[in-house]
Design brief:
Number of strands of chain A: 17
Helix content of chain A: 10-25%
Structural class of chain A: alpha+beta
Oligomer: homotrimer
CATH class of the largest domain in chain A: Alpha Beta
Number of helices of chain A: 8
CATH architecture of the largest domain in chain A: Alpha-Beta Complex
Number of domains of chain A: 2
CATH topology of the largest domain in chain A: Naphthalene 1,2-dioxygenase Alpha Subunit, Chain A, domain 1
Distance between the termini of chain A: 33 Å
Largest interface: A-B, 30 and 28 residues
Chain lengths: ~375, ~375, ~375
């Protein structure tokens, strides 16, 4: 962590918030959907959801339904949930298990778990028909640190390039072996970017988050990722608190292989475009933010713990869940007030302070990704 | 029936399903509304709804409200429900009876049942005002086989031309004297065309319709209308079933004047654009399909029987209603799955099999009607 | 009142209702929003709502939230509810009291009640930042006859010019000292202009309003404002009725300083674009009409009385409220039927009678204001 630098050293003087149309215009969201959400690698689930061959779940966003499955040979795969005959959606259940093949319920076209068409009743009488011309349409899929990412692009940037700054950086947290202990969803009447920007600064913590401010002072810590598509750093947990929980006590065994200094820190990163990762000594909570429309978003969040913390009498994630549920709701509310305000005709980009260097950097990454 | 030919003889090799925009794009529905739904003759009700002079009902579709009535002299008429003074909608009740005249509730302009303006308070003081300049706006209306059809076009193709292939073809079924015994409406989250296409083939019956398949084998029968705006044919009822009912027994007296062979058949026709007619030995069930938006439709269906079957202790339409309510719901569900799938960006037109020659012909009629 | 002239003398021969798109097209409403609603002086509240320094209420229309307040020195002010930092909406409560300053809840930027930025944490470290560059954005605000008007334009026509025809004309009614005794809101599925046009004529009263017609004969009275943006006149209250109340009796002390003739009259005025003022001997009821979309409006109405009528055992506004609640609902219903009718493709502008000279004049004022 010797590369950590104080936030203020990277403050870009004169940085201002984005113009109002970025938060309100359906046209901007349409462009973001094409340029970002249908193009980038997006988190879709933890890998534990498809543990065994034949397991699948549906990833349903941006007008698509994707079957993410582990095929018979154990390979992770993703297919569009669209029959090649007349386009029917084949799987309805949000998750399940294929015993050998995938069959369309309409006219019984049948596919292997690696996507090949293996049955098509009465099509043998159609001149020139060849089953090998009609495999399921595959989507790029990648597993990293126990997270599954999918892209809706046929040809996305290689995952290793997109995540290069953090690819090996988080190894000490052992994220790949954590297990999910809670999932919550929030409906927030705010543009998705306001939620990312809010996550990226703690200048608002003294007014918005009394509970959080007692554990994590807003001027503590430092950032180690100041520019680019992965941003963030750490904050210091004030003693005698052990973690960010409702009673200040640890709620599980340490998740990572950390030295004493790091064991008293909380790490906060955003992975462009829409993932936020919070690593605490004894648990992880992470978020993905999904636009519903330009002025409304769904936030999905899960809490992870070391497997040794799960199903014991000693440990319970309750204190971490309660703590962040409170803080999350405080954040969503102020994001909703921001949304209402930036929708005004008189709103003009306002000045960022030095303590808002990370949201300013996030805005730069966003504008670059949008080709502005 | 000597003109019946096997479906396979008319299979057009290489036929494929329509591109996705035809099922999803509001622009296509807007064009269909102009080109088809506001232009064509559409079924609106059975003639028994306006049995007596003065009887009326409202036909309310595509932004219009039409008063369909039988005038004082017994002539069937249709008028736009729009006062010529300030445009007020005059009739609110979905059906009723006019005792002599139609009066606007706003400023009391009054019309005869044949549409002439006969009263307009204080208008005599407006220079140049002449009541004969302000009759109600009439809509073309036609009765055929007991069905009432209305067009929202000022100048539609003559009804006899539009329905030429079937004008006299159904006479043996005595449709004009049947009476309505049940009406149901279904809300289907699918484009209207998917519902028509689904009706036009039984290749899906083995997987979707176990009850139907027991009575009507999907490869039985033949089509007699293979190309054009009226399409369809018959299927054979498997013995010992007498009809397509939940117990396989006839639920009424024979509706038509049929020979022994025809008495064991069920006839299925579509009348472009949005009517589907099912004729069974002892009852008729027919459907009209109405777009709500590009991805949602309302299906209105009624069951008809011979008057001798109605109000007796011997006969009840219950078995026919239950049977088709089950089959209908199976169809709507698979249409909804089709809608979800064809909305995907990766959906591409897929190949029709020889057993899907009638939906392929329907698509050709549709594209021709749309000027494609 | 010697300038009063009979309506019929100003009837413009050949006047017709507006084309259908004016009542149905979202594009027309978008243009009206820019040209009329965001430009003109609009009623927002009675001045009694901000009686003391620090009192405020929110005026929230047309995508804006405006803080209307009486500042520390007693001056009436209006500010956009938008923090100059990151645009956050600052006040959430619909009304309240500021004790000295207005603080943004997000990062604690703080403003004086006259709009100056007086606190901005950590901004002192941002190069070139000067608090005086970031006052709240002010909106033009005006008080007249106890009514508060606000404009969303930065540079509206001076209020005294816009309201010149009525500026001193209503002095005898002592409107500025009346107090609000009731407020109601109605949701009407009709274009806002249909509601204004309906208010402007009583030709519909015999068919629509049996209760009103007994008290105020539709051909009684005269108009004194026949052309322009303020229109209207009076009707005669039929004896032995004292006022337009459910029992015909006065429900309060006289509001104005009127001679015996005027004490038996009811006055009805529209103030372009969206205010309607009804002055009765013993109470006032007034309305503002707010478009929700092209085919739907919210009507806000309040009843006012002389302060001597309020809180007494002798007087109660109940009879006036009940009377107009009944009449209002009759009006909204016929406006909704009008809306349905003018949405038809076959609707064409119809002819106005001489008794509809004021709606015809209103339409002319509207078209002029829209630059047609």
């Amino acid at each position: 962590m010797t590369s950590f630098m104080r936030t203020t050293t990277t403050f870009v003087s004169g940085a201002r918030t984005l113009p109002g149309e970025y938060y309100c215009a359906p046209e901007v969201l349409a462009e973001e959907t094409e340029t970002l959400f249908r193009e980038r690698w997006l988190w879709v689930a933890r890998a534990e959801r498809v543990a065994k061959p034949g397991d699948y779940f549906l990833y349903e966003k941006f007008g698509e339904s994707i079957i993410v499955l582990r095929d018979k040979s154990g390979t992770l795969r993703a297919f569009y949930n669209v029959c090649r005959h007349r386009g029917t959606r084949m799987c309805e259940a949000a998750s399940g298990h294929f015993s050998g093949s995938i069959q369309c319920p309409y006219h019984a076209w049948t596919y292997s778990t690696d996507g090949r068409l293996i049955g098509a009743p009465h099509m043998q009488d159609a001149e020139g028909f060849d089953k090998s011309d009609y495999p399921l349409h595959a989507a790029p899929v990648q597993e990293w640190e126990g997270f599954i990412f999918v892209s809706l692009s046929d040809d996305p940037v290689p995952f290793a390039d997109a995540f290069a700054p953090v690819l090996d950086r988080l190894a000490r947290f052992n994220l790949d072996r954590l297990v999910t202990v809670e999932r919550r969803e929030y409906d927030v009447k705010a543009n998705w970017k306001l939620i990312l920007q809010n996550y990226n600064e703690c200048l608002h913590c003294p007014t918005i988050h009394p509970e959080l401010s007692r554990v994590l002072p807003y001027q503590s810590g430092a950032n180690d990722l100041h520019e680019g598509e992965q941003l963030g750093g750490y904050m210091e947990i004030t003693q005698p608190n052990q973690s960010a929980t409702s009673d200040g006590l640890a709620c599980g065994v340490p998740i990572g292989t950390l030295d004493a200094d790091e064991q008293r820190r909380a790490f906060y990163y955003t992975f462009f475009p829409n993932m936020m990762l919070s690593v605490h000594p004894d648990y992880v909570n992470y978020y993905s933010v999904w636009p519903v429309d330009a002025q409304r978003s769904i936030v999905v969040t899960e809490w992870l713990q070391h497997p040794d913390s799960v199903g014991t009498e000693t440990w319970s994630p309750k204190g971490a869940i309660e703590f962040w549920d409170t803080v999350n709701r405080q954040d969503w509310h102020i994001c909703e007030l921001s949304q209402l305000g930036v929708a005004s005709r008189v709103y003009r980009p306002g000045p960022f302070s030095p303590l808002e260097s990370i949201p300013a950097a996030w805005d730069r990454a966003y504008l670059a990704a949008m080709g502005r």
